[in-house]
Design a protein that fits this description.
Helix content is 16%, strand content 28%. The protein is built from 2 helices and 7 strands, in the order H-H-E-E-E-E-E-E-E. It has one domain: Cupredoxins -  blue copper proteins (Immunoglobulin-like), CATH 2.60.40.420. The model is unreliable at 11-40 (pLDDT under 50). It has helices spanning 3-18, 36-42; strands at 49-57, 60-64, 67-70, 75-80, 113-117, 123-128, 138-143. The longest helix has 16 residues, at 3-18. The chain is of the alpha/beta class and 145 residues long.
Amino acid sequence: MRLSTRLLAMTVVLAAACGGDSDDRTQHDDAKPAAATAAADAVPLSGRTIEVLMITNDKGNYFEPASIEAKPGDVLRFKLVQGVHNVYFLPDSNPGRTNLPPASVYAQLPGQTIDIPLTFGTGKFYFQCVPHAMLGMIGHVEVED
């Protein structure tokens, strides 16, 4: 089975599995992630929103930018350009870190956004798109005062 056929099949399965999810983690343009709400109360939001594009094209699947500098209280706004993507601050990639947001729902419609308030401390945090991490869709944010 060709790699492109396998990837297409995996994408269809993931999209079908995640398409009907309507739990509290569903993101909207102006919604806070459910798990980050309590942490957001402890760290005031700075008002700065940093847009990160989630892209699928002939170059592959990737975040743009993949390397970000931010301050506590900034908000990362992941915006879908094309494809089906999510954002996950995987605990294994961020050892010793607590209060990381849970894996987001999958953005499936161009223009859909996922907001992640940076309320979980300072340092370097790694994130990924779960189905595309093995294809290099990873990034990091350096949060400094």
